[in-house]
Design a protein that fits this description.
Order of helices and strands: EHEHEHHEHEEHEEEHEEHEHH
Strand order of the largest sheet: 2-1-3-4-5-10
Radius of gyration: 19 Å
Strand content: 5-15%
Low-confidence stretches: none
Distance between the termini: 42 Å
Number of strands: 12
Largest sheet: 6 strands, parallel
Shape: globular
């Protein structure tokens, strides 16, 4: 609580999926002010908007969550947009934060920054050992440049920027748009709609063989604030749950929880993405005491319940 006392905190992307949870938890810590810019007023790709944002907010701390994100399909459709927008937003936010004299910058990276064939569990030291999985490499590399910038600015200017690598997030309020959603909301939507329509099968992308690790959005928000409070180092830090599940097992579990008892068909013409994902989460626990608390099945139940209510039927 004392860390946040009197601080003015700027949270970019603060009205989004992760950002809204982070802001909600931040309010309970009673900083002097929380400033959440809206994209309609502050498009952070435009330099003049970033300059105006810092002039309006006068922050002490910046938590940079704003990002152009999506699943495999969205990344394949707009690799240039994902690369440019994420790179420019992050670079400008950190540069003008430095010029403004802020005391701390919390940069949020992505699991997509890791090499395609990273040994499991992913350790932060492996981050530069190869090229990311091709379908989301432009996004992953753009976000990874925040780490390079943070370390360079710390070396030259003494700028206190930290870099966190959250794994795939999920939870109530996730993006369920079929064109841009990630695996969990995409599968939930298909199963719920199949139950409602009486469909006997759902078609999912890929082979079902890849594995993923998932972190509940509320756990991620807690991890970000713990890092902001207690971590001031230059090394990247994973944020994850330490679990691993295949997409096939994930689909089977979601089918059970939604009541879908039909057939799951795999469209193997579609890409799988990175073969496996599972994080070593020991650094976050050691450095700032973070450990995921929401059980995976309970988190899925919450997400399914929320989607059923939000979809209105």
């Amino acid at each position: 609580m004392s860390f946040w006392a009197g601080k003015r905190v700027l949270v970019t992307g603060g009205s989004g999926f992760l950002g809204s949870r982070t802001v909600e938890r931040l309010r309970s810590k009673s900083p002097a002010e929380i400033f959440v810019p809206r994209r309609e007023k502050y498009d952070l790709v435009q330099t003049e908007n970033v300059v105006r944002l810092y002039g309006d907010a006068h922050p002490d701390i910046v938590i940079h969550l704003a990002a152009e994100v999506g699943g495999i399909g969205a990344n394949r459709a707009s690799p240039g947009k994902f690369f440019y927008n994420n790179l420019i937003m992050g670079t400008q936010m950190m540069e003008y934060g430095r010029r403004h004299g802020i005391s701390k910058f919390v940069a949020i990276g992505t699991i997509c920054a890791y090499p395609k064939y990273t040994p499991l569990p992913f350790k932060e030291e492996s981050l530069w050992d190869g090229y990311p999985e091709e379908t989301n490499a432009p996004y992953g590399l753009a976000k990874k440049m925040l780490l390079v910038q943070a370390q360079a600015y710390r070396q030259q200017y003494g700028f206190n920027a930290i870099f966190l690598l959250p794994v795939n997030l999920y939870g109530p309020g996730d993006n369920f748009d079929p064109d841009t959603s990630h695996a969990i909301p995409g599968i939930i939507r298909k199963c719920v709609e199949a139950v409602r329509s009486g469909a006997k099968e759902v078609v999912l992308w890929g082979t079902g063989n890849p594995t993923r690790e998932f972190l509940h959005v509320e756990d991620a928000a807690d991890g970000i604030l713990l890092a902001a409070e207690h971590y001031d180092g230059s090394d990247p830090v994973n944020l994850g749950s330490g679990m691993e599940i295949s997409i096939e097992d994930l689909a089977t579990l979601i089918a059970k929880l939604t009541g879908f008892d039909g057939r799951i068909v795999w469209d193997t013409a579609k890409p799988d993405g990175q073969p496996r994902r599972s994080l070593d989460v020991s650094r976050a626990e050691h450095l700032f005491g973070f450990r995921a608390r929401v059980s995976f099945e309970e988190g899925l139940r919450q997400t399914i319940t929320w989607y059923k209510a939000a979809s209105g039927r």
